[in-house]
Amino acid sequence: MPASESCYLGIDIGGSSIKAGIVTNDGRILQKRHASSALEDGLEAGLANLERISRELVVDAGITWDQVRAIGVAAPGTMDIPAGVVFHPFNLPGWKNLPLRDMVSQRFGKPAVLQNDANAAALGETWLGAGKNAGSLMFWTLGTGVGGGIVLDGKVWEGAHSHAAECGHIIIQEDGGPRSEFGIHGCVELYVGAKALVRRFREAIAAGRSSSLASDDASLTALAISQAAQSGDELSHDLILESAKYLAIGTVNVIHILNPEMVLVGGAMTFGQHTTELGRAFLEALRAEVKKRTFPITGERTVIDYASLGNEAGFIGAAACARIKYPV
Amino acid sequence: MPASESCYLGIDIGGSSIKAGIVTNDGRILQKRHASSALEDGLEAGLANLERISRELVVDAGITWDQVRAIGVAAPGTMDIPAGVVFHPFNLPGWKNLPLRDMVSQRFGKPAVLQNDANAAALGETWLGAGKNAGSLMFWTLGTGVGGGIVLDGKVWEGAHSHAAECGHIIIQEDGGPRSEFGIHGCVELYVGAKALVRRFREAIAAGRSSSLASDDASLTALAISQAAQSGDELSHDLILESAKYLAIGTVNVIHILNPEMVLVGGAMTFGQHTTELGRAFLEALRAEVKKRTFPITGERTVIDYASLGNEAGFIGAAACARIKYPV
């Protein structure tokens, strides 16, 4: 690439792993890496690890450090995005209100931005993924729990207090719905996502449903349930399609509030997406249940599909945030 | 006023009445009028009436027609806002897909914009009312039904298909909740608003509750229930505070999706707002129920209050829409 071309370093930091990459201003991924976060050895070790990986990425990408215009950092949990501060970072012992953005910026000698990881993933999908050029987009990330990100007019909508797109907490069944340890009842996350699927499986067995899976296995996982569903276990299959219904109700609420052009679904709990019968059935159920509950125009026109960048959406979106804030 | 100063004509058209006014570019209301829409005599009569009222307003405001920079028209129901087309206008017989914006523009010889009435009211409150200068705001309008408007970064968020802020349709009780004639279950509008209050009152009586109000009166109104609540009728008071709980759940969903700086509540079903015990109790219940169900930061920082422009918010917001699209 021309030595004058500017690039962005995107870093998606999780509790145990980081994904990072170098993305050019026009959206080519020059290098990427998935590595341990090394955070179990503390913050200093984690930052040193991050810097080493970043400098290696730059070398491997065949660019110079000077060509890195800015750094985007995505992290999980609640934060003050404009201030660049993570409230409860990575369960790091002793850390609260970590000024992660400025620490990265100082250490790397580059401008940096901080973003919530699901927000960043939504922007990544809008820049280079399934939501390319969508004017407005909501992104569901289905993992252990359920997260979300919203992009309006090409930018992450962060909300007034960096708390927008907490879509797993949308209440769909106030009365009689499942209760969380935090006292919130009947929200999407309590129906959808890996943890909820395991709980609902056990509840169904307790209510007399049968399954080829051993339900008394304390180590029962959502992965095992989704594999059983793909091997013909009726209960597992039913429960997963029921998840689609609950996700649809949350999606209807997003549509009735935001009316986005597109809703994307990503994360580990998407069952192989378009490549498996289960993934296709889940998406079809989601679309049908949304259509049932919304206005004819939004029911017909809202594009609902799987995200396409997998676990790279976060670092790509982090780079995209840096690119918006620090254009070339 | 200086003859050079530009003004905007804002018109809020309902099925039976219109509210209109002349607002200066810096937000002073020079003249306003509340009149019959004359739509019962058909579209031509309605437009002629509108033009007459508008020209009188200009004269009474002491400005010239040339000083009217542009016209904003707010109307109820679904529409294509960018195209300026109302889908099902005012129950006008024979009319569908009415190009209202262009008809007004041609008739008046001025640029015009169209906006949904609740969206316009939200913008009006942001410009001159209780939401003055809020960076982001959601506005509930509680009348016979429940509507909403969203303002982000000083502009109405219309959504991808002009269907944003249909907040009365937010689902809060999918299973076992009340059903509407359109097949949507358990949405906010079915719990909150005048129609829902009357239904819930009758249900409570049927379930054995007693009240000083005659429940077998076919003409029972929400106004009568709210008056009974203010005169010490326990059931009426309970039901109204319960409305606040349901409105809170809808509000929590708005917060978890958008995290607006402010949520305002307006419309006829606000019980005298800050001026009565019932109005104050309703607002306090709404705030408390929101706080219970959201994150500590949004629970503490989201400003929740009554709107302040009453039924003038619509024409003021319509003028504001014209001002944004056609600045001086």
Give the key terms.
homodimer; 328 residues; alpha/beta; Nucleotidyltransferase, domain 5; 2 domains; 5-stranded mixed sheet; 9 helices; 38% helix
Query: SSE order of chain A, as H and E?
Result: EEEHEEEHEHEEEHHHEHHEH
Task: Name the poorly predicted regions of chain A.
Answer: none
Shape descriptor of chain A: globular
According to CATH, what is the topology of the largest domain in chain A? Nucleotidyltransferase, domain 5
Indicate how many domains the architecture of chain A comprises: 2
CATH architecture tag of the largest domain in chain A: 2-Layer Sandwich
Kindly name the structural category of chain A: alpha/beta
Largest interface: A-B, 47 and 47 residues
| Name of the CATH class of the largest domain in chain A | Alpha Beta
Q: Termini distance of chain A?
A: 16 Å
Q: How would a crystallographer describe the biggest sheet of chain A?
A: 5 strands, mixed
CA gyration radius of chain A, whole angstroms: 20 Å
The number of strands of chain A is 12
How many helices of chain A? The count is: 9
Q: Approximately how much helix is present in the residues of chain A?
A: 25-40%
Range of strand content of chain A = 15-25%
Classify the oligomer.
homodimer
Averaged pLDDT of chain A: 94
Please list the strands of the largest sheet of chain A in the order they lie side by side.
3-2-1-4-7
What name goes with the CATH superfamily of the largest domain in chain A? ATPase, nucleotide binding domain
Report on this structure.
Two copies of one chain form a homodimer. Chain A has 328 residues and is of the alpha/beta class. Chain A has two domains: 7-123 and 312-325, Nucleotidyltransferase, domain 5 (2-Layer Sandwich), CATH 3.30.420; 132-308, Nucleotidyltransferase, domain 5, CATH 3.30.420.40. Helices cover 38% and strands 20% of the residues of chain A. Chain A is built from nine helices and twelve strands. The longest helix of chain A is centred in the C-terminal third of the chain and has 25 residues, at 234-258. The radius of gyration of chain A is 20 Å and the shape is globular.
